[in-house]
Design a protein that fits this description.
It is a single chain. The protein has 4 helices and 4 strands. α2 packs across α4 and α3 runs antiparallel to α4.
Length: about 200
Amino acid sequence: MVIAVCLLLSQAARVEAADTRLYRYVNADGSLVISHTIPSDKVAGGYDVIDAASGRLLERIPAQLTPEQLAIKQANDRERQACLDDLDRVHSLYSHEKEIDRALEEALASIDSRIKNAEANLTNLRSEQKKLEREAAQLERTGGVLSEILVNNLERTQIQIDTLDGEIAQRHREKVGARERFAEDREIFLNGNCPDMVANF
């Protein structure tokens, strides 16, 4: 008996709590409606939950997004998160703008050092290539036959030269990339915030 009474009291409390809440939504005619219930087909359009006694807004349920709107929101969320990640990264690396300039100088100096090493190796290879070519030309003038070793050495040297040429070109591209990257870091550091990127649906 006691249990039954408790259940009745609990149900009555839930009904009373529900009666203190009203739903405000826009109907098919575009009119604002306030009711103790909300039609299921109006839930997707968004609604307000208000206190019946005071009229105070308790909760605002936004309208459900269309697939297109959801895609825009997700793209905005990803863009903002990427901006926040960049902001955290930059501020964890640098405490002053001058540190960005110093880091750029160090990066460029390191790349320049690798370029100089590659250019020195390239000079040596070109000298060796010329020596091998003179040797081959001399054999051809005297009617000699190019040995397999000489041919292989010429091919190997050319491959190494092509590789170093590509490496040097790549290092110069890295310098351009480094300048662009540190310029972006400077802009992020000085800007210091990310836009809200909230779409007006």
